[in-house]
Amino acid sequence: MTLTILLVSFAVLIFLRVPVAFSMGVSAVLAIVLGGKGLPLELIPQRMYVMIDSSSLLAIPFFILAGELMEQGGLSARMIRFAQSLVGHWRGGLAQVAVLANTIFSALTGSSAAAASAIGSIMIPAMKEKGYPAAFAASINASAASIGPIIPPSIIMVVYGSITGVSVSAMFMAGIVPGLIIAFGLMALNWIYAYRNGWGSERRQTIGQIIKSFSSSIWALLAPIIIIGGIICGIFTPTEAGAVAVVYAGLVARFVYHELPMARLKNILSKAAYSTGMVAFIMASAGIFGWLLAVEQVPQTVVSAILSVTDAPGLAILLVIAIVLVIGAVVEVTAAVVLIVPVFYPLGQALGFNDVHFGIILCVALVFGNVTPPVGLLLYITSAISGSRIGQIMRYQWSSLIVLVTALLIVTYSETITLMFTGLLK
Which residues have CB under 8 Å from 312's CB, separation 6+? Predict the structure, then answer.
């Protein structure tokens, strides 16, 4: 009875387009009150608190704030100019710049929404001005921004690590290869579109111009090197890396680029606090929702059901991915991580998957939800910037999904490739 009330009410609320955090929280309350098990209401704040009571989660507000500082402090604009000097002369030049700039920005913040907003607000108007279809500009920027939760640092990897106890540093290192596979795949896709449609390239930059744009952006480009290098060398933890990123971005934006007036700091802090609060509320609501699933032994039921179909790891993981894709399509990514990890993590261990490898598979599968309706957060962000309807964007989005599927299959069936950089950790 409790499980039925929980799932049915959640499905109804999602169908009514109630925000996912409220959908999980309300359905959990209804299940406790009407489920007939006599569960005390005190469980609700208790389980919500337990979900977010983790020191590793402190990395999330740090990286969110760092992203805001980089976006409004001039770092993102300089990264775009440097990316343009490197790949702007390739066929489909501005589209290639969008992919490279999003990849670099993702390595600074770990937030796909921040990348879509910061890079998309600059690149989409520029692409439209050069004759690229607005819907294509929106699609390629959304797809490139989806690298944010994969390439380190990654907010959802922090969440995964806090739930499972798996090393967040190892997750970060394992995210490098999948992120690069998606980036190179999207660049190849851009070339195909540009070749078919006759889209040209930007003027090739001289060596002097490349050096000039590099020197202008060197402080921005050093940020991911400091963050990832510090983690690899064991100088600081991922949470401490987030704090370092905030201090570094603030100092560079304020004293090097001189694009962070104190009057703007209040707005930056407000936006970061709002984003952090939203993520925390989603996780807290997912905490009580997930606890009820555990009480009803849903994880054990799912594991038994999949193993009853097949105990072959290669086939079982395809069933897991199929379920994750469906969940990711209707539930916000952070909430989806909190919901699915306790359910599927035991299955991954039962099938013999490496904990880090299994986590990367789930993270890559979940990014599909960011670039597919009905949730499709990145599509809505770039749709608003470009002025294109979601239906128009989806005409181009299907080909980007092929790139994501290819990357997901490589990650799933090539553990050695996926974990290539984890050996660098000390």
Answer: none
| pLDDT tens per residue, range 167-225 | 999 999 999 999 999 999 999 999 999 988 888 777 888 888 888 888 888 888 888 88
- Sign (positive or negative) of CA dihedral 191, 206, 76, 250: positive
Helix and strand numbers, DSSP H then E, in the chain: 21, 0
Residue pointed to by tokens 């959990």 = 28
This prediction's pTM? 0.87
CA dist 191 and 277 (Å) reads 40
State residue 38 phi and psi, 5-degree precision: 70, 25
Each residue's pLDDT tens digit, 310-347: 888 899 999 999 988 888 887 878 888 888 888 899 88
What pLDDT score was predicted for residue 426? 60
Place of tokens 């209707």: 330
- Report the distance separating Cα 119 and Cα 75, nearest Å: 11
**Tokens 């744009």 found at:** 213
- pLDDT single digits (tens) 231-255: 888 888 888 888 998 999 899 988 8
Q: Which two tokens stand for residue 1?
A: 């009875």
How far apart are the C-alpha atoms of 259 and 75, rounded to whole Å?
9
Question: Which residue has tokens 């343009």?
Answer: 84
Q: Give residue for tokens 């990264």.
A: 79
